[in-house]
Amino acid sequence: MSIKKPAPDKSEMAGTDTPDRANTNAKLDSLEKFRSDATGQALRTNQGVKIADNQNTLKAGPRGPSLLEDFIMREKITHFDHERIPERIVHARGTGAHGFFQSYENHAALTKAGFLQDPGKKTPVFVRFSTVQGPRGSGDTVRDVRGFAVKFFTDEGNFDLVGNNMPVFFIQDAIKFPDFVHAVKPEPHNEIPTGGSAHDTFWDFVSLVPESAHMVIWAMSDRAIPKSLRSMQGFGVHTFRLINAEGKSRFVKFHWRPTAGTCSLVWDEAQKLAGKDTDYHRRDLWEAIEMGDYPEWELGVQIVEEENEHDFDFDILDPTKIIPEEIVPITPLGKMTLNRNPDNFFAEVEQVAFCPGHIVPGIDFSNDPLLQGRLFSYTDTQISRLGGPNFHELPINRPVAPFHNGQRDAQHRTTIDKGRASYEPNSIDGGWPKETPPAAQDGGFESYPERIDAAKIRQRSESFSDHFSQARLFFNSMSEHEKEHIIAAYSFELGKVEREFIRAREVNEILANIDLTLARRVAQNLGLPAPVKGTVEVRKTSLDRSPALSQANLLPGNIKTRKVAILAANGVDGAAIDAMKKALEAEGAHAKLLGPTSAPVKTADGKALAVDASMEGMPSIAFDAVFVPGGAASVTALSGDGVALHYLLEAYKHLKAIALHGEAKQLQDLLKLDADVGLLQGKDVGALTKPFFAAIGEHRVWAREPKAKAIPA
Ligand code: HDD
């Protein structure tokens, strides 16, 4: 019985391609960066048997039933049937990248951790960024906290700094985590909403749990809709300890500060992006690394001497509190650079397993009850997610430091342990592997010998009881536009809550205790009576404002890696395009030429210019700014093109810088837009660039916001 293979698709056969297609295919082939290891290899089964036919199951006759003996088909289908592993219960949606960390100087006075001592040493890192609420396939730009988890592969073992892009958390004790997560996740009866907190169960919980007030106001701020993963701060959240070789311990809070500055999307843009480009953040990070725009963060610590532990008007063990930078400034330690995308998403981003309990000598925990619970939870979750206790052997989790111990066997063991002694002490393997006393050179891990003298008790410390002062500090520290965004976010989210008593509880028992104006404005938007006063007494604190909390103060002062759309149609002024592109490149920014379609556009002097995409293909929400070059015919064409007009209106609405060159001024008149510091026109590209770049550098034209509200969404 002969098995007949289908005739190959002609377009796949080199010799039968049209010359154009063959050229393009050959070019694409030569450009392929993500080439498989199997290039040039025969197709084989997992047992190494060469496969002759990958098209047809073994059958009893060409029209007959399939045969059970077809081990090739069964192996393939069985493996496929088990391709999925459980997604993370929280932080399921994420992306990652490789890079390195380099210490600025020798921080031996602070810690004995080796990776913070030798400035010449590049410690490899893998970072995974994530959203919290949504499943693996959910949108990147939803309103949510972002995970910021860094695995340092140090010579002394792995150190995982498993933080978020916000410096506090929703709850104070880990025992409340399942309650919080059940409340924020999609509701159990209908699995709605995906990727958001605007629903009854979330607001029911947080309005009943005042300790969440501070974190919730961060989540209602622009921090919850970051412009990119590259423009987010990161925080270790908890207080940790750094310990030096003399055994001196200091409390620290870890901070990541992006050198690209910290900034956010605007809400309408974030919502649209979640639909038009679900992968917006993932793509941005990937492309930046591919282009060589390596994202960087400075790692720093706020240091509190042991004897100053109780000097604050909050408890440094309480994870719902920050230590304001104005009280304890950040000491920079070093810089992290992300410079390599993963080769395989599943093997690396999906299988990476973080745990706050992965620390190295020189770092230790504090008694923060949220951190203490986390130390248990992460390893436990990996056992069901990654199928057993051997997840540390997966390539992405393997320390660069060697590991030897008496742990043996279990699911998915890949190490072939040799020898007979899997116990310690032993005498038949010379006693190896042996302990290393902490005092020795490169000594073993030693916990900080903190003295504990206490009753065993289930009780929250009284020092954890102020839930509103720092939420108020955050609100007071915002610029006017940031305050407006917070009011709008609470109003939007609570407006989606069906039960009015939950809305009212949040307004009266939470917001009114943070700030009465905030509470009243939200009440007004919800049609609720305005609260007259809070329900708890306002506590006196040492600081009213912390400018370090406002993103208005966190811009980088340059336009590096910013993206500018250039809109053109036939008849465009080619010289203006060249001049703008050159000027942007000189600043480290990027331009894309967009046409009415993906076909090339002709310049006024007859040259054909290839476009990067059509205007529909790369909407304004994917850019930081828009430039429209002159050229009478091009501008006339754009004036009659709804997509182009919408492009400009949308960029205007999202407060982006727009520069109209030459005849393009007509578009401003046509759309009846008022000039402002970010809506510029001029005949000379050279003269336009200065104010245009200054406006891009300010991230958004905030002064335009009240006017932009009138533009239809
Ligand atoms: Fe968590 C994942 C951050 C509290 C239990 N968490 C997870 C991730 C981040 C954080 C970034 C994703 C890691 C990755 O990319 O794989 N979690 C935090 C922060 C917290 C926090 C900053 C508070 C300061 N988490 C927290 C508590 C518990 C957990 C209190 C449980 C008691 N977190 C988990 C988990 C996850 C997780 C269930 C899900 C997947 C995983 O661990 O690997 O164990």
Automatic annotation (TrEMBL):
Cofactor names = heme
Q: Give the superkingdom in one word.
A: Bacteria
Q: What reaction(s) does this enzyme catalyze?
A: 2 H2O2 = O2 + 2 H2O
| Residue ranges, annotated region (Disordered) | 1-31, 420-444
A Pfam match is Catalase-rel
Comp. bias regions, Basic and acidic residues: 1-12
Q: Which residues form the active site?
A: 91, 164
Q: Which residues bind heme?
A: 88, 128, 177, 374, 378, 385
CC per GO annotation: cytosol
State a single Gene Ontology molecular function: heme binding
For this protein, the record's SUPFAM superfamilies field holds:
Class I glutamine amidotransferase-like, Heme-dependent catalase-like
Q: Which NCBIfam families does this chain map to? A: PRK11249.1
This one is known as Catalase
Which species is this UniProt entry from? Pseudomonas hamedanensis
Q: What is the lineage of its organism?
A: Bacteria, Pseudomonadati, Pseudomonadota, Gammaproteobacteria, Pseudomonadales
What gene does this protein come from? katE
